[in-house]
């Protein structure tokens, strides 16, 4: 991210703070610090003020890195939050109470006066809902790598490999394709393990007739792709094929429902109603999707009844699944960019059940 992007995002944040009657916001969640500055270290905090008195703080391990990644910001070398009082002056401070521990909030109140420290959660996250050009470009690249790795995987996936073998090979392929690494820990669920939506790859060997669900994504410049496909190793049980057809149909309905102005709950219903009508409502055990960006799970959550309204340039997943305990399961997922018209599917790879 360039310094220009960070400055533009901080300006948008200042406008939000002014509207909320806040003089300043202390940003401690590292993902938000990165979003607003470009700094990628593992220790740091940012003070954003309505009068452009912003300060980035980190400790001695990262001062050189911070100066290089956020050259447009004044830098404090400090551990903890002792620097805040001096940088704040007589301003009133908002703290991100979703991320800052109560002990740290209480310490700030003791230092500054309780009346000067108020809860102010969710402001950077509200900006992150809608992606800018740099974010969309990174997401497109991450999703393109993910889809390419999946196509490559279809050439080597075979019985005899363990779930863990597959996970390792996916990781290596993602890195070899030019990604920074994996967006999250890869899920590989074979045979009856497919009934566990977040199964951790183990030593189970893939067997002929297994359906294998693989959920993974590449990460590029901190932005994360998320894609799931299910493949059959030889002709599967007819009941599993029917489940696969059902999930593909439901997922297509969910993608078709994605549009600016639609609620997150409407998208969930587009998938869930089809699965319920087929008698598997109790086997669809998670929301239809979620926002994705610098975090793998962001707002909005596409769940039943959710009232959040989709807006152009939001990135969300659509991932219905059916999971039958003791038998197996199927999930199909894409990362999708909301537009003013038809949704832009970023993870472009075959969705129908592939039989190898």
Write structural notes for this entry:
This protein has 356 residues and is α+β, with helices and mostly antiparallel strands. The protein folds into 2 domains: 3-128, 3-Layer(aba) Sandwich (Creatine Amidinohydrolase, Chain A, domain 1), CATH 3.40.350; 133-355, Creatine Amidinohydrolase, CATH 3.90.230.10. Helices cover 35% and strands 21% of the residues. Strand 13 (289-291) and strand 14 (298-302) form a beta hairpin. Helix 9 (238-257) packs antiparallel against helix 10 (264-277). The radius of gyration is 23 Å and the shape is elongated.
Compile the SSE list and pairings.
Blueprint: H1 3-19, E1 24-27, H2 30-37, E2 45-49, E3 55-58, H3 63-69, E4 75-77, H4 84-88, E5 93-95, H5 102-112, E6 117-119, H6 123-128, H7 133-153, H8 163-176, E7 181-182, E8 187-190, E9 211-216, E10 218-220, E11 223-224, E12 227-232, H9 238-257, H10 264-277, E13 289-291, E14 298-302, E15 315-318, E16 321-324, E17 328-331, E18 334-337, E19 344-345, E20 354-355
Helix pairs in contact: 9-10
């Amino acid at each position: 991210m360039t310094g220009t992007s960070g400055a533009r995002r901080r300006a948008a944040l200042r406008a939000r703070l002014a509207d909320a009657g806040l003089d300043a916001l202390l940003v401690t969640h590292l993902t938000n610090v990165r979003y607003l500055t470009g700094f990628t270290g593992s220790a740091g905090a940012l003070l954003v003020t309505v009068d452009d008195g912003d300060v980035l703080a980190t400790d001695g391990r990262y001062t050189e890195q911070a100066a290089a990644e956020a050259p447009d910001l004044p830098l404090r070398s400090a551990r903890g939050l002792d620097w805040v009082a001096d940088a704040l002056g007589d301003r009133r401070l908002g703290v991100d109470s979703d991320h800052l521990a109560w002990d740290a909030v209480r310490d700030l109140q003791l230092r500054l006066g309780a009346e000067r420290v108020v809860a102010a959660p969710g402001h950077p996250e509200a900006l992150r809902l809608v992606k800018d050009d740099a974010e969309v470009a990174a997401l497109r690249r991450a999703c393109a790598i993910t889809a390419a790795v999946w196509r490559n995987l279809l050439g080597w996936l075979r019985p005899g490999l363990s779930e863990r073998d597959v996970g390792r090979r996916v990781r290596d392929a993602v890195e070899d394709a030019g990604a920074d690494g994996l967006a999250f820990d890869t899920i590989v669920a074979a045979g009856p393990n497919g009934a566990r939506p977040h199964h951790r790859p183990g030593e189970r060997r893939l067997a002929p007739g297994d359906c294998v669900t693989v959920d993974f994504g590449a990460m590029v410049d901190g932005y994360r792709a998320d894609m799931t496909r299910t493949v059959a190793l030889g002709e599967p049980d007819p009941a599993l094929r029917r489940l696969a057809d059902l999930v593909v149909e439901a997922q297509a309905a969910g993608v078709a429902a994605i549009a600016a102005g639609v609620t997150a709950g409407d998208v969930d219903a587009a998938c869930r109603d089809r699965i319920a009508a087929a008698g598997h409502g109790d086997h669809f055990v998670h929301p239809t999707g979620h926002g994705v960006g610098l975090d793998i799970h962001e707002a909005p959550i596409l769940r039943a009844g959710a009232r959040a309204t989709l807006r152009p340039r939001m990135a969300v997943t659509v991932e219905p699944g059916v999971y039958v305990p003791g038998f197996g399961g199927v999930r199909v997922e894409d990362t999708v960019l909301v537009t003013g018209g038809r949704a832009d599917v970023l993870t472009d790879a075959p969705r129908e059940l592939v039989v190898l």
